[in-house]
């Protein structure tokens, strides 16, 4: 018997398999990178969609609360959207408040334009902004009502200008057909105005407010009046 097989019980010595070549490793790394990128983009789209839906749901709840406040206190109440400082990344087109017209303690009658905040309100989710361009103040497409908060009954951090959706003491929307539209966007540095990017250029949602105060969700960007090419937010 050949002596070169004795140490292995008669079988040829085992040779370890050859490793991957550099080119093969680079190809595998490239494929993994592509898959991770595709996955990240997909997850980003899902997150944006969830945030947008959450923003619309939050706004609907605030409208219902404002209407309830109006009927409960027998005075005007409104939903307010912050339009103060475009450089305020926290609140500009994101802070949504509820206020009601204060009552005179002597007569229990509303004091015109003396607004009192009911709470700290809510802030729209990350990447979601109120749309000044596509939100309308009524069925005829008029601009939104603008009011100012000031005075001893308003804390300084809430003073300033707001778009207002107003309900009368019976819970009737004073601008029936008004629309509340939000969209997915980004802010760059201190530029102020949000802008749409990439696949989110038509990622908008919202609802219409009827005379009785009820709301109806838009089923598509077309119903919200979003054009094929969005140039302003």
Automatic annotation (TrEMBL):
Superkingdom, taxonomy of origin: Bacteria
Record SUPFAM superfamilies: Pili subunits
Presence of keyword Cell cycle: no
Membrane-crossing segments per the record: 20-41
Originating organism: Luteolibacter ambystomatis
UniProt keyword list: Membrane, Transmembrane, Transmembrane helix
Protein name stated in the entry: Type II secretion system protein
Gene3D superfamilies: Glycoprotein, Type 4 Pilin (3.30.700.10)
Pfam families in the record: N_methyl
Keyword Transmembrane on entry: yes
